[in-house]
Amino acid sequence: MNPMLGFAVKAARRAGDIINRAAENIEQLTVQHKTKNDLVSEVDRAAEAEIINSLKNVYPEHAFLAEESGRTGSSEFEWIIDPLDGTTNFLHGFPVYGVSIALAYKKQLQVAVVFDPCRNDLYTASRGAGAYLNEKRIRVSKRDKLIDCLIGTGFPFKANSDIETYAEMFKTVALNTAGIRRPGAAALDLANVAAGRLDGFWEIGLSPWDMAAGALLIKEAGGLVGDLEGEDQFLETGKIIAGNPKIFAQMLSTLRPHSKKLT
Ligand code: IPD
Ligand code: CA
Ligand code: CA
User: What's the whole-model pTM score?
Assistant: First the structure.
């Protein structure tokens, strides 16, 4: 295993231990609102500190971009971290949340880990070496007609979040697919595309830490990831479409007409 991936896996499992321990006593957690509907708990912070400390121990010169502590350090190597993706689910005891860690070198994603502590499922990828779930190779689905597809998404929930345009997109996708799912943790949704359980995914208003690891998983599983113009700017714009290559193309032509209306 790529040594950097090995250290990322260790860090993700440690964060998973913190999350699992805290899940036994959710009512006792202190929760703060960052903005409306955007929650952070002491678990998010403790898991993030654990991940950063354990990676810093090995790579003291690397930079970090993490949800709760922002950007620290300056290096061509940057770790992109969501210590607990799906905080709202976690705080409700709804078992869909996970840890997401990616490493970029000169802005190019190199290794990815998404860890689902509820199922003890570990998704890993390194550039050029494929994607794995618990050490078994995973590939995107083979479905080729959008109408047969199960598509994941996330609802915009912050103020001024293009909810009207999103609702139009939702309607189009709902009418042209087998179904839509909104599990509530973008990193796991993308991992599920990589594993072929969802045929595609789209969301607007995401942050780099929600997408970085999941995007590399999908690419290494043979899928495509892009923004709503079909370009590669999803980490910058927060707008993402992903899927197997055939479905990516069909989602793009379905959703692109709406993207001009987004702010
Ligand atoms: C959220 C989840 C959710 C997505 C939100 C994200 P968080 O991450 O990934 O599925 O719809 O946009 O902010 O805040 O729970 O880490
Ligand atoms: Ca997140
Ligand atoms: Ca988070």
Answer: 0.96
